[in-house]
């Protein structure tokens, strides 16, 4: 006896991730880790292409001779945690497209 013939449906490939979203995922991880570790120097802002806030954080730290570093580091720590807890689409919309500079 032969086996019944079932129609063969083509396999659908998984949906492709847009390159912008894939790039945002890499930036999210790098900016998040740098925000947590080096937040007082504003490194995470430079990674996201936000030079003005990065320069502000760096100058506040340097010109205060490090006295304001703890405050800047707390800001960087909070931002780093926020970056890492957002999903890729939220991060992309907020920080890449919307260029949200603070928190």
Would you mind describing this structure in some detail?
By secondary structure, the chain is mostly helical. It has a domain at 39-103. It is 63% helix and 0% strand. The protein contains five helices and no strands. It has helices spanning 19-38, 43-47, 51-63, 69-85, 88-97. It is rod-shaped. 24% of the residues are buried. The mean pLDDT is 90.
What percent of the residues sit in helical stretches (DSSP H or I)?
55-70%
First CA to last CA: what distance? 69 Å
Structural class: mainly alpha
Global morphology? rod-shaped
Number of helices: 5
Largest β sheet strand count, sense and barrel closure: none
| N to C succession of SSEs | HHHHH
Would you report the number of β strands?
0
Quick tags:
103 residues; mainly alpha; rod-shaped
Please render the helix and strand layout as text.
Layout: H1 19-38, H2 43-47, H3 51-63, H4 69-85, H5 88-97
Helix pairs in contact: 1-4, 1-5
